[in-house]
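Recap from last week: sequence in, structure out.
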Amino acid sequence: MKNLLKLTSVLMSYLILILFSINATVAYAQENAPKKYMDYSTLDNIITVVQYKDTGLAFSYDDYNYSPSSTYSLYHLKNNNAKKIFGNANHAYFYAINRNDNIVYFKNNDPRYVVDSELYHNFDTTYTTAFYTHADEIEKNNSIKKVVTKKVNKEFNSNYNSNNIESFSFEEKYDLKGTKYTTFIMRPQENNPNNFFTGVYNDNFQYLSTNTISVDFDNKNRPFITEYNGESVSLIIVDNKNLLRFSINENIQSNIYVVDNHFYFLGEDFTLNSYSFNGNKFSLDKKYTGSIKQLTTDKDGNLWALKNADGRKIVSKLENNELMEKYEVNKDMTNLSVYDDNNMTVYTIDKFTTINNTEDNNCNDTNDTNDTKNNTNNNDKNNIKRLTQTGSPINTKTLLILASLLTTLGGTVFIKKRL
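Predicted structure tokens:
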């Protein structure tokens, strides 16, 4: 009899431990599952979105028929609502979009004018305006062109006159701390498109080239330059005024991003490649599974990805060289603009979802994964985070019932033996 009771007690304890372990595993999975933001709103012809805190600034053409007479409008995207704050601008197209804190700078190309117009948008006041009169735009353009021509002549032992340069454009970019860099492209003769110069400079640094370049900043606020020469791509990282140069022989399908001592890009199959580097030596250390739709960085230079995962669309953040799933969104989304962990906008050409994780707006962490159009209500205040359940849930009440049944079973066996 004692052996039977001992065996029953051991079995009961073992089963309870298993059930508690399963419950803990499920709870951990629930806690680490990506939050669902499946609802979306519609807005036609979204070209790009710039995120600042909980608000996205959307650039949208007013019609599908792009032409020199096309107009565009700006919208604030917040809580899955779109509010027009600047409308029907009569310019052919916009470019050179850069954010410095709460100000977004951008340029308009308009064939009616000699040089492109510089505009800015203030998120705090929702005010959008031009920086200068057109006469002042011409004066600024000529001033920078004169500086650049001197730099090019000195670097390449040439003798160009800034007054005779056929084609010149510049862009002002800002690093993570708001320091300004000027990038440029200069073509001395319009009829010789293969003869051009590019570069980036400020008071403390300059890099000039005869190839196409792009400039960005990593999470340590180091400038890095991607240089394209035919099928060859070089990455130049400016590390305390030392240039770390890497030649990459890959079919690159995205921009290159630098985080700590790694650089990342999408390969020909749209998988994410991770290369580690030490000094001027580098090596491939990881290929991530899954198809990536887009890569981008937040205000601190952290890398984010929008990826396909088993029929779902997932927003992931790179943490310790691992892509950690943060949010699940509508499967049609193709683009991502991120301010920080809690504030971002995912979008495609005609729909968008705003994520403000501090308030759980638009979050729908429930068993219902159906997408809802134009639903901006907070659906998560009273919801318990949980996975989509495929069977009966295992919770504390269930464990107590099972424990009670096992105890009763043991007691019944004991009574029958006594009788």
